[in-house]
């Protein structure tokens, strides 16, 4: 790893506050690719997450809080509560923000800084990482390298490009714990992690599990 990347990682560490269990974030992600445009709202507090994504007109809420991963169709009022895997719980100790980690991860993997430019009125550094399967570029705020502004992924196998723009960043919000759990009036099917794995094998789980690393762990998903 070059001295430049080590220095950037050091700045990133300084930019991330300590006491992550109390620190909160909000951002909106606009994703554009071959499957169309999708918009997701993210809120987090420490390692707790709430994400709201519209899928075929249905608001799908993903919530992660302590030992539990929830996915709820807010139109039908039905959802799942799945106990999180041991690898995911172990990774909570990192204290990293549970969404928009692209800038941090691409630097950890040895990305090369290719240029500095202006994006939506803000100075950003552009980092690139290429391998046999893909080319990834991340536009990270020059003054806050932990904040990705845009991500572009080119898949060499399909020749398709997917772009994610993160907008409306906010932090130091006051978010109550109840925000990361489903409405008590919803019908929630609870299950252990092992039971969930068995049921997915039988195709018995109808709701989409998004942000799977928060259920399984990054290392397990990356296998």
Keywords for this structure?
twelve-stranded mixed β-sheet, 44% strand
SSE arrangement:
Elements: H1 3-15, E1 24-33, E2 36-45, E3 48-55, E4 58-65, E5 68-73, E6 78-83, H2 86-91, H3 102-108, E7 112-119, E8 122-130, E9 134-141, E10 148-155, E11 160-171, E12 187-191, H4 193-201, H5 213-216, H6 218-221
Parallel strand pairs: 6-12
Antiparallel strand pairs: 1-2, 1-11, 2-3, 3-4, 4-5, 5-6, 7-8, 8-9, 9-10, 10-11
Characterization of the model:
The protein is of the alpha+beta class and 223 residues long. The protein contains 6 helices and 12 strands. It has a 12-stranded mixed sheet. The two termini are 23 Å apart. The model is unreliable at 1-21 (pLDDT under 50).
Biggest sheet, strands in spatial order? 7-8-9-10-11-1-2-3-4-5-6-12
* Structural class label: alpha+beta
Overall geometry comes to globular
Strand content: 35-45%
Number of strands: 12
The biggest beta sheet, please?
12 strands, mixed
Number of helices: 6
């Amino acid at each position: 790893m070059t001295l430049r990347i080590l220095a950037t990682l050091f700045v990133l560490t300084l930019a991330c506050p300590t006491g992550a269990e109390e620190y909160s974030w909000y951002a909106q992600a606009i994703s554009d690719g071959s499957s169309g445009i999708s918009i997701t709202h993210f809120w987090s507090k420490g390692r707790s997450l709430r994400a709201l994504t519209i899928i075929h007109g249905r608001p799908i809420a993903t919530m992660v809080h302590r030992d539990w991963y929830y996915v709820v169709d807010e139109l039908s009022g039905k959802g799942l509560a799945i106990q999180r895997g041991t690898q995911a719980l172990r990774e909570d100790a990192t204290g990293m923000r549970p969404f928009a980690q692209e800038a941090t991860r691409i630097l950890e993997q040895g990305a090369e800084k290719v240029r500095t430019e202006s994006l939506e009125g803000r100075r950003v550094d552009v980092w690139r990482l290429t391998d046999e399967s893909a080319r990834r570029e991340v536009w990270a705020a020059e003054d806050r390298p932990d904040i990705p502004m845009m991500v572009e992924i080119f898949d060499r196998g399909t020749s398709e490009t997917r772009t994610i723009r993160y907008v409306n960043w906010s932090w130091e919000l006051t978010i109550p714990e109840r925000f990361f759990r489903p409405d008590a009036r919803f019908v929630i099917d609870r299950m252990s992690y092992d039971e969930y794995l068995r049921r997915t094998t039988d195709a018995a789980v109808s709701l989409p599990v998004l942000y799977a690393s928060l259920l399984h762990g990054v290392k397990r998903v990356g296998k």
